[in-house]
Amino acid sequence: MEQYAIKGGNPLVGEVEIGGAKNAALAILAASLMTDETVLVENMPDVRDTNVLLQAMQSIGVMVERIDRHTVKLNGSQIHKLVIEDDYIKKIRASYYLLGALLGKYKQADVSLPGGCNIGLRPIDQHIKGFRALGAKVSIEHGLIITKADKLMGNHIYMDVVSVGATINLMMASVMAEGQTIIENAAKEPHVVDLANFLNSMGANIKGAGTDVIRIKGVAKLHGTEYAIIPDQIEAGTFMFAAAVTKGDVTVKNVIPKHLESISAKLLEIGCEVKESDDEVRVVASKALTHTHVKTLPYPGFPTDMQPQIAVALALASGTSIVTESIFENRFKYVDELTKMGANIKVEGNTAIIDGVNRYTGAGIAAPDLRAGAALVLAALAAEGFSTVDDIHFIERGYEDFPEKLQSLGGIIEKVDSEQALQKFKLKVG
Ligand code: UD1
User: What is the pLDDT of residue 295?
Assistant: First the structure.
């Protein structure tokens, strides 16, 4: 029974170093197998999702050498299997990136249907449509997505929805296809750009990543590279909101402020001070928070992965706020947990109507998914009294050393694994 034990009430104050972006890492690690030469990836976050993906890659013959906690060397010259049906990999959404990577390199791949956070229906029709447009046959049999092509040919693909995953998968599948591929209505997220930069550093010819239209001229093969992953926009945003929720003063270091603009804008709107410099952003919450409205949108809009964190802040802000979730249809599962802490939130379809309260009170709560789990930890850090947060394996999927980083900012939080340890924590912190 691993859980976080938290005593709330301390404002979080200080500086925190942000790690490499989990979602960029998943794409980049998968793409590393597309060359037979060695690839060195730096600034990799040491979180459960990246470790599971590395294990899955090892299981098909990718040589993985961990240089240090955040640096890994990969070599895909000895791949002996194009089937990935590991039970474990089903749990991570990005397992399907191995489909794009293997299909792009070997013109064939069978990968288990993906899992990931249960935040609503997560179809893969756009991935399949794109693979087919490149000339692959795609079927779903026995829980596996089976893809095969005699050869892959560039094509003009119009995405019906803006999908990060499908854009990434199609970049990988088309990078060594014959001729030119154009992806219209592509996702513009920072990790889409990071993958394009990574592939280009391997000899690919990808232009336009970060805009709606990505043009990929197929190359015969890719070569080795050394590459450092961008900082994690969502980890940074979570700590920025930690300052707002706990009325603290937090500087996130090693970030790209441009990637945080939609998050900074909302913090300003609700009454925080936000100071940006080259590679850090400081958030000071010295005044009472005020209400606002927010709608999640694809980048550069406000990220759906920050929706629970902003809701946790708005539930403590004066007045009525409205949060509209436009990407995933079931992303308010944390509301029941937050209600236990005294929040006043009503969910209607994809909208949460939040009436601000003065304070949270500690409670026994559980993380329903990765980002909501992190948001509930922030609520517990602001709450009066003790809280426990269960199902922290969700949080560990995407946050490296989360309790330690929060402790370094003055948060009273510990990971405990028994009732005895919990009692000891309570005695210690009083
Ligand atoms: C990625 C991120 C996730 C983030 C999400 C939106 C990774 C590993 N995960 O997830 O953290 O919350 O982007 O920023 O990077 N859709 C379809 N058909 C498809 C694919 C998607 O209809 O074939 C829909 C989805 O149901 C959703 C929307 O498109 O409504 C966006 O999904 P998408 O961008 O694909 O999310 P993921 O790549 O799964």
Answer: 98
Residue nearest ligand 1's atom 22 by CA: 123
Q: How far is the CA of 293 from the centre of ligand 1 (A)?
A: 23
Strands across the sheet containing 144-148: 83-84, 108-112, 144-148, 137-141
- Examine the domain organization and report whether 222 and 158 are in the same domain: yes
- Number of structural domains (the chain) is 2
Ligand 1 atom nearest to 191, measured from its CA: 15
Tokens matching residue 107: 């013109």
pLDDT at 21: 98
Residue ranges with strand state E in 175-259: 180-184, 205-207, 214-217, 225-228, 249-253
Residue ranges of the chain with pLDDT lower than 50? Answer: none
- Taking phi over 0 as left and psi of -120 to 50 as alpha, with beta for the rest, 122 belongs to beta
Which three-class secondary structure state does DSSP give residue 193?
Answer: helix
What would you report as the CA-atom Rg of the chain, rounded to the nearest whole angstrom? Answer: 22
Alpha carbon of 64 to ligand 1 centroid (Å): 28
Can you tell me which atom of ligand 1 is nearest the CA of 168? 38
Distances in Å between the Cα of 316 and the Cα atoms of 224, 292, 423 are 50, 12, 29
CATH number of the domain within which 380 lies? 3.65.10.10
pLDDT for 119 equals 53
380 and 362 within one domain: yes
Q: Give residue 391's domain range.
A: 3-19+231-429
Question: Which residues are catalytic, by number?
Answer: 117
Three-state secondary structure call for residue 329: coil
Can you tell me which residue has the tokens 């009325």? 247
pLDDT of the residue at 204: 98
Same domain, 101 and 69: yes
For position 191, what pLDDT does the model report? 97
Whether 185 is in the pocket of ligand 1, judged by its Cβ within 6 Å, is no
Amino acid identity at 64: V
Distance 371 CA to ligand 1 centre (A): 14
Look-up of token digits 């459960």: 48
